[in-house]
Amino acid sequence: MQFSSSLKLNHIFRRLYGRGASAANRYLVLYCLKNGTGSNRVGLTVSAKLAGAVGRNRLRRQLREIYRLHEASFARGYDLVVVARSAAVGAPYAALERAYLSLADKLRLRGGERA
Fold first, then answer.
1. What is the pLDDT of residue 1?
2. What are the DSSP E strand ranges found in 1-115?
3. pTM (2 decimals)?
4. Which end of the chain has less neighbouring CB within 10 Å, N or C?
5. Three-state DSSP class for residue 55
6. Is 41 helix (H, G, I), strand (E, B) or coil?
């Protein structure tokens, strides 16, 4: 990921859940909050209740790849957390991609470089 790093700290996840803007659809919930830097930080949450380890890891890989492929179109300077819902497990890649990008559009995170 050229303009991004991963988000791993629990207190940052909690801050996004509490203060961030969010949008949801059948497959995903996306939280975002400005972070005051010139790059994005992306975190993924896939609950152990959704699937076994293989299913969870496959879903994480798919979500990371969707972001990687469309990273240049995302505005910079945000913390993003993507929470997978149960319908996302086993969903076709194209459906996940549409869901992810539509949530980003709802939150106005896409549309080229906006810092």
1. 60
2. 4-6, 21-24, 28-34, 40-45, 78-84
3. 0.89
4. C
5. helix
6. strand
